[in-house]
Amino acid sequence: MEMSQIRYVLAAAKHLNFTKAAAECNVTQPALTKGIKSLEGELGAQVFHREGRRILLSDFGRSMLPHLQHIADEAAAAQVLAQNFRLLEQVPIRLGIMSTVGHMRLARFLAQFEKSHKGIELSISEQSVSDLRDKLSDGEIDVAIMTLTDDLEEEFRTQPLYKERYVVVFPPEHRLARLNAVALPELSGESYVDRLACEMREMVMAVCQDTGVELYARFRSEREDWVQAMVLAGIGFAFMPEYSVTLPGLLQRPLVEPPVERTIGAVTVPGRQFSPAVNALMRAAQAFAWPG
């Protein structure tokens, strides 16, 4: 049984006319007729009754038609999958990640995605919030992983991934180690390491000002690794998203009164068509068991 023979039968069943079926299949009528007769011989029964130029489906043909259609549909689906796989290999995904997003959980997702989509290419760059927005708009990246905000959701298409709390991080010998959670007033007057790249920094500072909490910044940096290293060295505490704490030895406690959290999501440009590779990534991100 050949796929060409199945196509001939399906076209003939559609038109009930060998001439029209041959034209649809782009073959001569004798070639189509020969192919159908060969398939009937292999099946052991007639698919069509022939009445001069007029043809009708036999009872046997009518019962076989759904099975033949299923075979044709499966073959077409396999061709689409093969084509998409080739496209996945040819078109890398350009992924931009906000510099304050912790890499461990994102790396686990990307590792699982890579295992499920062999041959796919990823290009990852770390950017600030403003750079990510510009590069998305200009088409320089396909997807941005960043904190979702109201103004971002008004301009872009967003897909939430996970939530994470803000925590207070400090070295093991710090007095805060005795607490199970840290209320903001507990931190007034404490030495502080300021994370300049934090997209929620202004909000936290505003809350501190409103509640009369005074913080003394002894060190400031836009780099997450430097912030954590200076905290561990005993310079002061820092506010950090819980999944961004990566340096061994640091202690952390949830920030309460008030609690602060953020939502990390995948951001794309509305109306811009996804490549097969990007489409696969977005589906995988939606199905992944993210923390929290």
Can you tell me about this structure?
With 292 residues, the chain is an alpha/beta fold. The chain folds into 3 domains: 3-88, Orthogonal Bundle (Arc Repressor Mutant, subunit A), CATH 1.10.10.10; 91-157 and 265-287, Periplasmic binding protein-like II (D-Maltodextrin-Binding Protein, domain 2); 164-262, Periplasmic binding protein-like II (D-Maltodextrin-Binding Protein, domain 2). The protein is 44% helix and 24% strand. The protein has 10 helices and 12 strands. The chain has helices at 3-15, 18-25, 29-43, 59-90, 103-116, 129-137, 150-155, 201-210, 224-232, 276-287, and strands spanning 48-51, 54-57, 93-98, 122-127, 143-147, 157-170, 182-183, 191-195, 216-221, 238-241, 251-256, 261-268. Strands 3, 4, 5, 6, 7, 10, 11 and 12 form an 8-stranded mixed β-sheet that branches. Helix 8 links the parallel strand 8 and strand 9 (216-221). Helix 1 (3-15) packs across helix 3 (29-43). The longest helix is centred in the first third of the chain and has 32 residues, at 59-90. It is rod-shaped, with a radius of gyration of 31 Å. The two termini are 53 Å apart.
Gist of the model:
The chain is α/β, with parallel strands linked by helices and 292 residues long. It has helices at residues 3-15, 18-25, 29-43, 59-90, 103-116, 129-137, 150-155, 201-210, 224-232, 276-287, and strands at residues 48-51, 54-57, 93-98, 122-127, 143-147, 157-170, 182-183, 191-195, 216-221, 238-241, 251-256, 261-268. It comes from Aliiruegeria lutimaris.
